């Protein structure tokens, strides 16, 4: 009996031993493919990194899949480099007076010298960008590590002065022939947005560029839907300050809006050109820089998200405010618009014939011109409207969104990307800008819940009479 128990016990031990051996063998065979897969993955990752390195070496940049927002209205982005300086306060005063927001690509070195101006740039609602620390080309473009260190140094300064870490970066001198594909890629990996420009004002071609030269450069620049203008607010750019109001007025008359650059604006970037700097990038150095820029990006993901959440909250507040304003306006009884012509008579525009949009009055071109005693002729084949009033002729071209102004039959000016809409078979124009084109001006406006009135001073040779006849007026003929 004792022998049988012992045999059973030995049999159990052999079974258990067999199970252990089977388990170990199974684990061994299952582990081999797992380790092989992990090894294959590492090899694939290493190969991918080497392929990327070689691709960048040839100057090819990976495609950026980010989407951007295109503004509905043609927009100018005024940008100022190399400041802040003693001139920056004057620039900010002009922008404040004109109700224009801009972008300042500041140097860390200059920010330390003018901390109050950095704070004011941010407080006034402008965008603060990073322009390196000292602007010394030889240092910045000798190696990406130096460029990176300067961007980081300036960023820390901006954070300490104005509690902001700019995402926008402008390379001193622009990226063309200064950046290579490695520079671009590493900055992308870190989450920065590098932006150049598509209009150079020429204010930094040499010391003290004359005002008229800058002005002629701006006027000769092509008109695009989005214009990023390079100016400088560093020392020695007094001409920039002097010409700035004229530049703002010029683009406003062309129907452009003004806005600061943001992460949602597609950056203007020059193509990768042959570098004029002698530098070598090894695979090992590239891998070190990749690790550093990616670690930076990971460390700032939460900060960036917090900033985006704050921007979205502000945007939501703006939307709510607009909706509330629209509701208030729609709740008010519709009011006719009374138009008083100085030296002439008055007429009324019914509520259904005009609209208030973005704090301005818009109405059909034909209605306005005929009310003040002019005529409008529509040419359907050309999609143009010819408005004649006194010595002025305005030709509205819908196909090119342009207006051509004639005085006594002579061409005076052409306005591209003009402010006009086509609705229900009518050309809709802003009242104030149209009166300005006709040589007149709005002298007074009252828009409230009980009254809507506009006073207009017309300055051509003829003024409107109550019976729709035209009467010559010597005062206006002399430009009085």
TrEMBL record:
Q: Which Pfam families does this UniProt record tie to the protein? A: Cu_amine_oxidN1, Polysacc_deac_1
Q: Which InterPro entries has this protein been placed in?
A: Cu_amine_oxidase-like_N (IPR012854), Glyco_hydro/deAcase_b/a-brl (IPR011330), NODB_dom (IPR002509), Polysacc_deacetylase_ArnD (IPR050248)
Domain of life, per the record? Bacteria
Where does the NodB homology domain lie? 74-259
- List the Gene3D superfamilies hit by this protein, alphabetically: Glycoside hydrolase/deacetylase
**The protein's name:** Polysaccharide deacetylase
Provide the species name.
Paenibacillus alginolyticus
Q: What is the lineage of its organism?
A: Bacteria, Bacillati, Bacillota, Bacilli, Bacillales
């Amino acid at each position: 009996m004792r022998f049988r128990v012992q045999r059973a016990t030995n049999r159990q031990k052999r079974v258990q031993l067999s199970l252990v051996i089977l388990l170990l063998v199974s684990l061994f065979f299952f582990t081999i493919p797992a380790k092989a897969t992990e090894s294959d993955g590492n090899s694939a990752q290493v190969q991918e990194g080497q392929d990327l390195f070689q691709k960048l070496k040839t100057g090819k940049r990976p495609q950026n899949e980010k989407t951007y927002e295109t503004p509905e209205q043609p927009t100018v982005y005024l940008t100022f480099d190399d400041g802040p300086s003693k001139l920056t306060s004057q620039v900010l005063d002009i922008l404040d007076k004109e109700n224009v927001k801009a972008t300042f690509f500041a140097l860390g070195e200059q920010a330390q010298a003018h901390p109050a101006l950095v704070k004011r740039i941010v407080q006034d609602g402008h965008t603060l960008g990073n322009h390196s620390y000292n602007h010394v080309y030889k240092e910045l473009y000798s190696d990406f590590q130096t460029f990176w260190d300067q961007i980081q140094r300036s960023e820390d300064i901006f954070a300490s002065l104005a509690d902001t870490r700019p995402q926008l970066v402008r390379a001193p001198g622009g990226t063309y022939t200064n950046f290579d594909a490695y520079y671009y890629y590493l900055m992308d990996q870190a989450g920065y947005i590098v932006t150049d420009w598509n209009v150079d004002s020429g204010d930094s071609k040499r010391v003290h560029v004359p005002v008229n030269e800058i002005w002629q450069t701006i006027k000769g620049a092509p008109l695009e839907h989005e214009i990023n203008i390079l100016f400088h607010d560093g020392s020695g750019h007094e001409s920039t300050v002097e010409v700035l109001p004229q530049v703002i007025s010029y683009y406003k008359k062309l129907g452009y809006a003004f806005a600061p650059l943001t992460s949602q604006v597609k950056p203007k970037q020059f193509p990768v050109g042959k570098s004029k700097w002698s530098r070598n990038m090894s695979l090992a150095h590239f891998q070190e820089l990749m690790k550093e820029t990616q670690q930076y990006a990971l460390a700032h993901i939460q900060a960036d998200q917090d900033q985006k959440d704050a921007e979205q909250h502000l945007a939501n507040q703006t939307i709510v405010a607009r909706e509330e304003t629209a509701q208030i306006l729609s709740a008010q009884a519709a009011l006719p618009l009374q138009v008083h012509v100085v030296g002439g008579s008055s007429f009324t525009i019914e509520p259904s014939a005009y609209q208030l949009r973005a704090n301005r009055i818009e109405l059909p071109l034909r209605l306005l011109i005929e009310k003040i005693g002019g005529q409008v002729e529509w040419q359907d084949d050309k999609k143009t409207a010819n408005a004649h009033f006194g010595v002025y002729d305005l030709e509205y071209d819908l196909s090119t969104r342009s207006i051509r102004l004639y005085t006594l039959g002579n061409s005076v000016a052409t306005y591209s990307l003009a402010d006009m809409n086509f609705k229900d078979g009518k050309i809709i124009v802003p009242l104030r800008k149209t009166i300005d084109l006709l040589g007149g001006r709005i002298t007074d406006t009252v828009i409230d819940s009980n009254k809507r009135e506009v006073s207009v001073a017309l300055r051509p040779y003829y003024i409107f009479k109550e019976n729709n006849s035209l009467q010559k007026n010597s005062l206006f003929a002399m430009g009085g």
